[in-house]
Amino acid sequence: MTTAPTEIASNDEETMILEMVRELVAEKIAPRAAEIDATGEFPWDVKELFAQNDLLGIPIPSEYGGLGGTFQTYVKVVEEIAKACASSALIVAVQELGMLPIMIGGNEEQKRRFLPKIASGEHLVAYALTEVSSGSDALGSMKTRAVRQGDNYVLDGQKIWITNGSVADIVCVFAVTNPEAGSRGVSAFVVEKGTPGFSVGNLEKKMGIRGSPTVELIFSDCEVPAANRLGEEGEGFKIAMKVLDKSRPGIAAQALGIAAGALEYATGYAKERVAFGKPIGQHQGVGFMLADMKTEVESARLMLYEAARRCDAGGPDVTLWAAMAKLKCGDVAMSVTTDAVQVLGGFGYSSDYPVERMMRDAKITQIYEGTQQIQRLVISRGLVGRG
Ligand code: CAA
Q: 371 with 136: CB under 8 angstroms?
């Protein structure tokens, strides 16, 4: 019987990339994972490693300096890294999240100006949508304002929970340009580090993904050139939503990787650890847990790869599939890591073993890029409309 994980639709190039990533993960990232979590410092060495190996611009077309790869390759790369280190996987995932507003809403000049440096890793990029009172209700409660003044927009407001906001060179920010216009009253801007009036506020202290800085961003009379507006005025909310359709599979991949890493560790432990005269995995109580964990991981993987395939194909069902993949993979990450801790017993609860870190890291995948409740809202609206 084979226990190898699902491999779907690989081509030669993807196979080569994944082999290279597996080697990097085994040699350079897995040995750093516990330390990254313990120190809570952004792993610049890991970011450099990704940049040197062209992993920061996988789905960016080659004409803009990227690898011109598929979303299917991209999600598999995130998954491989997350098996060992969720914080490191987030570097690749957030680089994609941050570049998508430019890919989706940017004009040719903006793509040529920003994308090559993102693809090479010279610039890190962040995505700033969330505010203190505007998390799930991203549109209705947005307060950050952008007011046109000549050739500039003046931004005022605060964003919170911005992943990599303190290390990013550029940030894609969403702000209200017309408070009367509802979904057509939001616009998207690229704000560059060093712009007067743009600063970084509090760093969050978090349960997991501790190597990934999550910060507050402050805009105070911050003048941004109109040439940095992405799309037309009022198109920002749609850009933000289209971005999430393509970035949620990246978070699903992170979740799946965490689950797969925990399953692998727990399985290895259950083969070695002996109780009552035989390995604990051969006792039905543990063996059946592992069976359920494996089944869940493989179903989540099939759903994610299908969502990524649909991202590559384009089409209106991407919204639904991205939400379903994020929902399934996030829930599987939480349940599988919790069970992995259980399989290891007392050792699972100790930071000397990786599964407690994996369990802490898994939780955020049920919260960010839209909570599991928001994914269900998106899925149900896709099925029956919103009334
Ligand atoms: N694609 C294109 N357009 C879309 C769209 C999509 N997927 N989803 C919505 N729209 C359009 C709608 O068609 C509508 O347009 P019209 O007004 O022209 O008809 C407009 O956007 C408003 O849509 P809704 O009426 O559906 O908006 P809503 O206020 O009911 O909210 C929501 C929709 C799905 C709940 C949305 O607010 C949402 O996704 N919330 C969650 C926010 C989120 O995921 N935040 C994540 C932050 S990023 C992050 O977490 C990253 C990180 O740290 C790593």
A: yes
